[in-house]
Amino acid sequence: MDQIINRRNFVKAGAAVSALGTFTNTTFGQDKANSTLNVALIGCGGRGRGAAANALNADPNVKLVAIADVFPERLDIAVNSLKNYGHRAKIETKNMFSGFDAYQKVMDLKEVDIVILTTPPHFRPQHIEAAVNAGKHIFAEKPLAIDVAGCKKVMDSVQKCKAKGLTFVAGFCYRFDKKKQETIAKINSGAIGRMTNIQCSYNTGGLWMYPRQANWGDMEWQMRNWLYFTWLSGDHIVEQGIHNIDKMGWALGDITPEYAYGMGGRQSRVGEDYGHVYDHFSIQYKFANGIYTNFTCRQQKGTDASVSDIIVGTDGYADLMKHRIYDNEGKVVWRYKGGAMNMYDAEHVELIKGIRNGKVVNNGDYACNSTAMGIMARMSAYTGKKVTWDMLMNSKEDLTPKAYDLNASLDLPEVAQPGITPFV
Ligand SMILES: NC(=O)c1ccc[n+]([C@@H]2O[C@H](COP(=O)([O-])OP(=O)(O)OC[C@H]3O[C@@H](n4cnc5c(N)ncnc54)[C@H](O)[C@@H]3O)[C@@H](O)[C@H]2O)c1
Fold it and tell me: Which architecture characterizes domain 178-338+372-393 according to CATH?
C-alpha cells in the first residue's frame, strides 16, 4: 500500500509503464502472438457471463475452457448463456467446478491462460493472489476488495504481476470507454480551465433480493444475497458507487485524498432481508491540491435516478457521462461526436492485445487507489469520523469470516451507527 501513497516512486521503479498502464514484457508474449488463448471464468453470475462473452468477442482465437462457481446450478446457466459461441465456449464437464475451493481447481489447470474473476468482491484478494501464484493473466471486476486488509493484499499481487509479466486488468470499465477518454483528454488540455471541484452521483433504484429459504443456513443466505452484507460487497458505495469514485480519481490524476468525511444510513431497505448495509451515502473528499469533491449514492426504490460526474473548472465544466464540455454560461462548447466500442468488450480487447504484443496491461495501481477511496468513504459514514488516508492505511479492519462453509452459522451484523460504531 506504500506504493499507493508513493505512486510516482513506484511507477519509476516499474520501468516501461505507459500512461495507460501497459508494461513491456520481454519474457512472455512472443509465443502468444497468434496462438489460442484459453480463458476460465470464476463467478458465473450476471457480470461473469457478460465478461466471458466480452473476452470471446474480443478475439476470434479465444476459448472459454473452464468455469467455477460456489453454487453448482450457476454452471449450467453460464454454459447455456454462451451457447451462441459454439465450440469456443463448449466446456468439458471435468472443467466445471463448484464449491468454495472451485477457484483453486481452475488455477491448477495448466491450459488456462487468463482468468476472469467475477465473484462478490470479498473473494477478489484471495482469487487474485491464487491467480498470480499460478501464473495466470487476470481480469478482475471492480471493486478489488472490501476492506483495507484485502486492498493491501491486492496491491502486493499487482506488484507481483508486474514482476512476472502478467496482465492485471481491473474492471473499472469507464476508463476503457473512448468517449470518456477523449473527454478527460480535453479536460487535461485545459478546456475547463483550472479544475476547482467535482460533483458525482450514483443514485438509483433497488436491486434484486432473494427472500430467505427454510433450508438455507446463515452463510448460504448471506452468500445468495451478498449485496446486503458488508463483508461480501463492501456496501453499495464500494460495490457500485465505486465507479464514480474511480472516475473522480481519473479526472484528478489518481492522487490520494487527504480525507473523506461522510454520512449515510438506511431509510427504505430497513428489513432483515436487506442485511445490514446502508441505502444512501453522502461523502466529501478533500485533496492536497485544494480540490473538494462531493459524491452521493443511493439505492432506494421509487426515487429518481441520477448517475453523473460533473467536473468544474474556472472556465466551464464537463459532464463526463454525456461527453460534453460547457462554458460558464452553460453553453456546450465541445462534445464527443465519434463512435466507440462497447467499453466491456474494449477491456478484453486491450487485455488480449497486450498479451499478444508483449506489452501487458496493468491498471492495478489506480484500481487499488479507487477501491481504497471507496472503503475510506464507507468507514467515515459508518463511524461518523473524518477518515484521513493515514488512518485508512493503518486500519485494522478485516471482515473475513472464520470459515467458508455454506452451512456455517454467521451473525447478522448490526447496522452501523455513526458516533457509536468505532473506527478500527
Ligand atoms: N463493471 C460493471 O459494470 C459491473 C456490473 C455488474 C457487476 N460488477 C461486479 O461484478 C462482480 C459480480 O457481480 P454480479 O452482478 O455478476 O453478481 P452475481 O451475484 O450475479 O454473480 C456472482 C457469482 O459469483 C458466485 N460466487 C460467489 N462466491 C463465490 C466463490 N467464492 N467462488 C466462486 N463463485 C462464487 C455466485 O454464486 C454468483 O454466481 C461484483 O464485484 C460486481 O461489483 C461490475
Answer: 2-Layer Sandwich (3.30)
